[in-house]
Amino acid sequence: MIMIKKLLLYFLLLAAIPAYTQHTNIMISSNNEPEEPSIYINPHNTQQIVAGSNINNFYFSQDGGYTWAEHQLTSSLYGVWGDPCLLFDTTGSIYFFHLSNPTSGNWIDRIVCQKSNDGGLTWDVGSYMGLNGTKAQDKEWVVVDPATNTMYATWTQFDYYGSTNPLDSSIILFSRSTNQGITWSQPQRLSQRAGDCVDSDNTVEGAVPAIGPEGEIYVAWAGPSGLVFDRSLDGGSAWLPKDIFITDIPGGWDYNVPGISRCNGLPVTCCDVSNSPYRGRIYVNWTDQRNGTSDTDVWLVSSSDGGNTWSEVKRVNNDLPGKQQFFTWMTIDQTTGYLYFVFYDRRNYSGRETDVYMAVSKDGGETFSNFSISETPFTPNANIFFGDYTNISAHNNVIRPIWTRLENNSLSIWTAIINPMILSSDQQQFSLFSLEQNFPNPFSDNTYFSFKIKSPCHVSLKIYDVFGKEIATIINNKLLQTGKYIEMFNTTLIPIASGVYYFSLVSENQIVKHKMLFLR
């Protein structure tokens, strides 16, 4: 009878835990229909991570993203209406930027900045930028200069959101704060050429600012001229007299992907300020359908001369032609100069099933390794709004993407605990070893791990709990010769509680993980 109960617990626990992939998936929240997420790692304490999602959801992790507390943001003065952008400043304060929905005023009539000094438990009522009568202020993004703690914001202003009147236009605006968001400068117009107000290909949108090594401000956006670029070398006081053309966007930035109610390929701008060989290089990442409506791809261009000239367009996703990759975002780990991309990917399916993939470039955007990070695919529904973007943050080899998922018509947002040692599915095609299931399993005392080394290599054998935290190290980076090995795990030496655990065998370019159950 005791054994039957133990086996029943075993199967219940296994059913409740998703399959363990190379990069552990963590559901941040499924409350309040979250979508369009943002995430940011505190560069001064990578255990602290903040995230947000539409419309007013805030999340805070103090253990590197394994567990999350969540709250809902309010602003009695200006209201909260989505497009979250989260960041830490250099003092550790948290900022949540968003659109407005004031009780007195007009819908999205300003960009709001709210600040918290206690991990998001409490927020100030906020400051704002861009208020200009009844004009709409939309799709903001903000960065902080690590040298001066100055914050720079760019966004789109609509004369009248959604208008088809040719007299109504959209422009890109810029503002800065030098006093931790208390006040913001009078907005400056960046875009020489205006767009329309339809919120489509000929609207100017997608302005994401980036900081250069000497405090330069770089920003690119999409619109009727394709991708264009502007810069300031004096903290935002002066900008180029004429925007620089980067490249065209065949098919436009507003396109259709089956199962997605609204899909766009708006650009993301980053600059390498690390001490890598590519320090100072500027990158712009976006998606478009230049290869056809059934073949959306992820693209990258770069500039090594401050944006004066740009490289040829490079394809980031490395699958065969004919599949959809969309909703990209890019970041740079400023301790290594590595570029990380996250995007939805349908390379493995003939229908609308969707995985989440990442790509990494360690050579300044010349080559890319692609790898899947979602544990299982999902199928989006065009009747349920999915948001307009994913997001990703990285610092000192801590890499945390964030994305939206739909399951049984229910939205949720997720992150993954990315293992920086295993960043290419291509590399894993050559197997250095094989790892068998532990025996016995389930176990109540000792268990054994059996594996074969096919070619001499350094390996580590470790045990983790369901949150990905290391419990025990059986082998630590040891050079093993070709042959079969059996290792024992003794729970009397390392006491653990009953539950599901994982064990992994890792080499330089391969990782294999299995699930096991311990029952007292």
Folded structure, characterized:
The protein is mainly beta and 520 residues long. The chain has a domain at 2-11 and 427-518: Immunoglobulin-like (Sandwich). Helix content is 3%, strand content 43%. The chain contains 1 helix and 37 strands. The chain has one helix at residues 2-16; strands at residues 24-29, 35-41, 49-54, 57-61, 69-72, 85-88, 94-99, 111-116, 127-129, 136-144, 151-158, 170-177, 188-189, 210-211, 217-223, 226-232, 244-247, 254-255, 263-264, 268-271, 282-288, 297-303, 314-315, 325-333, 338-345, 355-361, 369-372, 391-395, 398-407, 410-417, 433-435, 446-453, 457-465, 470-480, 483-490, 499-506, 511-518. The protein has a 4-stranded antiparallel beta sheet, with no helix packed on it. β3 and β4 form a beta hairpin. The longest helix has 15 residues, at 2-16. The radius of gyration is 24 Å and the shape is globular.
Summarize the SSE layout with pairings.
Layout: H1 2-16, E1 24-29, E2 35-41, E3 49-54, E4 57-61, E5 69-72, E6 85-88, E7 94-99, E8 111-116, E9 127-129, E10 136-144, E11 151-158, E12 170-177, E13 188-189, E14 210-211, E15 217-223, E16 226-232, E17 244-247, E18 254-255, E19 263-264, E20 268-271, E21 282-288, E22 297-303, E23 314-315, E24 325-333, E25 338-345, E26 355-361, E27 369-372, E28 391-395, E29 398-407, E30 410-417, E31 433-435, E32 446-453, E33 457-465, E34 470-480, E35 483-490, E36 499-506, E37 511-518
